[in-house]
Amino acid sequence: MMNMMGPINMIIWIIILGFIIYGIFVLVTKLFEKKEDPPVQILKERFAKGEIGEEEYEKKKNTLKK
């Protein structure tokens, strides 16, 4: 019975370590994720829905980026 505990403990620790590495990876990727201005995001959504044309989209995007 004691011989079985060694491999089981090792598997449990590998799983725990995997969760820790995954958590660190998620946190780091969130920190470096490019966040866009909410007005620019709304403008992109309106363009995607077809509410505004390409010319108007470019004009307003340039105005917002200034």
Beginning-to-end CA distance, first to last residue: 71 Å
What is the strand content? under 5%
Rounded average pLDDT:
87
Poorly predicted runs of 5 or more residues: none
Query: How many runs of DSSP E, i.e. beta strands?
Result: 0
User: What is the domain tally?
Assistant: 2
The number of helical elements comes to 3
Pattern of helices and strands? HHH
Pfam family, one: SHOCT
Protein name: SHOCT domain-containing protein
Transmembrane segments: 6-28
Domain SHOCT: 40-64
Verbal overview:
The chain is built from three helices and no strands. With 66 residues, the chain is mainly alpha-helical. It is 82% helix and 0% strand. The chain folds into two domains: 33 residues; 33 residues, no CATH class. It holds the Pfam family SHOCT. This is SHOCT domain-containing protein. It comes from Halobacillus seohaensis.
Structure in a nutshell:
With 66 residues, the protein is mainly alpha-helical.
Key features of this structure:
transmembrane helix; SHOCT; transmembrane; 2 domains; membrane; SHOCT domain-containing protein; mainly alpha
SSE diagram, text form:
Elements lengths: L1 H30 L6 H12 L4 H12 L1
Helix pairs in contact: 2-3
